From TrEMBL:
Organism of origin: Cirrhinus mrigala
CDD domains documented for this protein: Cadherin_repeat (cd11304)
Chief location bin: membrane
Domain Cadherin per the UniProt entry, residue ranges: 18-127, 142-239
Highest taxon of the lineage: Eukaryota
Keywords assigned: Calcium, Cell adhesion, Cell membrane, Glycoprotein, Membrane, Repeat, Signal, Transmembrane, Transmembrane helix
Topology versus the membrane: Single-pass type I membrane protein
One biological process term in Gene Ontology: cell adhesion
TM spans (from-to): 254-281
Name by which UniProt lists this protein: Cadherin domain-containing protein
Length: 336
């Protein structure tokens, strides 16, 4: 007699991942929908009890639902990028995936996953100093007696990328006199190569290029204006249209005087009209005292107008406004 026994499977085994945790990396600026990697779990049960499906557990990354960053295929366990990643915003993030079988009741297990975003050289260097403005020209003043190695200025730049992509180097691209200036390869310091002489031109212009170490590299350029001079008026004659500035000031003074004359005329007419109404001598004297005070105030305003356009003469860093108003900012700089 042959006796056959058929044993029915009971869902008594939970799915088991082939790793205790997963780590993967992806380049930033990836294409949405990119397949990152695959998680895999196995179930020792049979048929429906061994059928495994994968579920992304709810969590957040920097306040953003993880489901807006990645997704997982329920059948295959393939993890996809939902959107393009930006290393400067998210450098890495963690989440958990649950593997659940098809038994009744279902059994499950979960695993931790870490995604690391790899930086790409997608940002060019940014020059912080000297500030480039279309409305003004910033000039560094170098005395004619400056020795070799005199620190003219320093180009300051940053790169928001990381690692080698953020390593910066500085080079002179264009310069009025290449034998007079050099720039530090690593620090961006502009110094004199030789002794400054009287034969050197007052107006010097340098173009510095800042290059990062990425592949391919990115760069930024900055223009540096240098004035080789011992006095402030000498710089003005090179960097500004002085006759235009003087004409502007003369016009402003003319309109100021004209306005004061009109106000004075109207004031005197008003006084004459008021005198016709006064019969008391003391009231008339008091009115003349008011006129005298008004005259003194007018003279004070005129003196302040004359002082407003005084020209200081000293060694400095200057900022010359070229927008038409010819505003000049004069900042003292200590010699280094």
């Amino acid at each position: 007699v042959t006796l056959s026994l058929q044993i029915s499977d009971v869902n008594d085994n939970a799915p088991v991942f082939d790793k205790s945790s997963y780590e993967a990396s992806v380049q930033e600026n990836n294409t949405p929908g990119l397949s990152i990697f695959t998680v895999r779990a196995r179930d020792a049960d049979f048929n429906q009890n061994a059928r495994v499906s994968y579920i992304l557990e709810d969590s957040s990354v920097n306040g953003v639902p993880v489901s807006s960053l990645v997704s997982v295929s329920a059948d295959s366990g393939v993890i996809h990028a939902v959107r393009s990643f930006d290393y400067e915003q998210i450098k890495d993030f963690h989440f958990r995936i649950k593997a659940q079988d098809g038994g009744s009741p279902p059994l499950s297990s979960n695993v931790s996953v870490k995604i690391t975003i790899q930086d790409q050289n997608d940002n060019a260097p940014q020059v912080l100093y000297p500030v480039q403005s279309g409305a003004s020209v910033v000039a560094e003043i170098v005395p004619r007696l400056a020795d070799v190695g005199y620190l003219v200025t320093k180009v300051v730049a940053v790169d928001v990328d990381s690692g080698q992509n953020a390593w910066l180097s500085y080079k002179l691209q264009k310069v009025t006199d290449r034998a007079l200036f050099e720039v530090g390869l690593q620090n961006g310091e502009i110094r004199t190569v030789r002794q400054v002489t009287d034969k050197d031109a007052v107006k010097q212009r340098l173009t510095v290029v800042v290059v990062d170490n990425g592949q391919p590299s990115r760069s930024a350029t900055v223009n540096v204006n240098v004035a080789v001079a011992d006095s402030f008026p000498e710089v003005l004659s090179e960097f500004t249209d002085f006759t235009h500035d003087k004409s502007y000031n003369d016009n402003l003074t003319f309109y100021l005087v004209l306005a004061l004359a009109v106000v004075s005329f109207l004031f005197i007419v008003s006084i004459i009209a008021i005198l016709g109404c006064f019969t008391n001598l003391e009231q008339i004297f008091q009115l003349f005292r008011i006129i005298r005070l008004f005259t003194q105030t007018t003279c004070t305003i005129m003196r302040k107008s004359d002082l407003k356009y005084g020209r200081p003469c000293s060694e400095s860093i200057i900022s010359l406004d070229t927008s038409g108003t010819q505003t000049l900012t004069h900042t003292q700089r200590r010699k280094l």
